[in-house]
């Protein structure tokens, strides 16, 4: 089943470059309560979405679509590439990923990312970001089941060419994965998933001239991310 979204319904991420924070679009929770705390939290995430260039609205989707999951699992195949990548686990976030060995790690820039690794030379970086979603949204398919169409919309907002878009169902989690060639000579891999009441974004950014040499490493990083501890 394919869903059609106008830009007035789905406000996607703005342009991302290697020397700026990730323009990950927040998902704005629906108004399920009128309590002061809930309104404050909702307004806070709306402000973050505005700051970084847009948000993705899921409240208009029925829960049956928001929870749609494929039946076939794809095995997770990743490697540490002879020590180039190290396994990193964060108990507080409840996530696991292979990160480049020796890169600088930064934590918690509000409104930008949860974790960031940056190359010691240049601006190449990898970021993990997350935003709360309503409890009935349990799958990234809430954004629509036409991954190619979603990728094209994301590419348009990034002023980029969509190289590839695919979905992967691994260990009970659905991932949408995208490959972009941005017109500022940045190459970006992006993974989106939903688990534990949050939408998770992992983006790996590299100068285009270096991407051919780093493609295998970046694909291992993106493929290794798990929004839970196993």
How much strand content do the residues show?
25-35%
Distance between the termini: 32 Å
- Secondary structure category: alpha+beta
- Poorly predicted spans: 1-66
Order of helices and strands: EHEHEEEEEHEEEEH
Choose one word for the global shape: globular
Features:
two-stranded parallel sheet, alpha+beta, 230 residues
Q: What is the secondary structure topology, with strand pairs?
A:
Blueprint: E1 26-28, H1 36-52, E2 55-57, H2 63-66, E3 85-90, E4 95-100, E5 104-109, E6 113-118, E7 125-132, H3 147-158, E8 160-170, E9 173-182, E10 186-195, E11 198-207, H4 208-224
Parallel strand pairs: 1-2
Antiparallel strand pairs: 3-4, 5-6, 6-7, 7-11, 8-9, 9-10, 10-11
Structure commentary:
This protein is of the alpha+beta class. 22% of the residues lie in helices and 34% in strands. The chain has helices spanning 36-52, 63-66, 147-158, 208-224; strands at residues 26-28, 55-57, 85-90, 95-100, 104-109, 113-118, 125-132, 160-170, 173-182, 186-195, 198-207. The strands form three sheets. The chain has a seven-stranded antiparallel beta sheet with strand order 5-6-7-11-10-9-8. The longest helix has 17 residues, at 36-52. The radius of gyration is 17 Å and the shape is globular.
Write a compact overview of the structure shown.
This protein has 230 residues and is an alpha+beta fold. It has four helices and eleven strands. It has helices at residues 36-52, 63-66, 147-158, 208-224, and strands at residues 26-28, 55-57, 85-90, 95-100, 104-109, 113-118, 125-132, 160-170, 173-182, 186-195, 198-207.
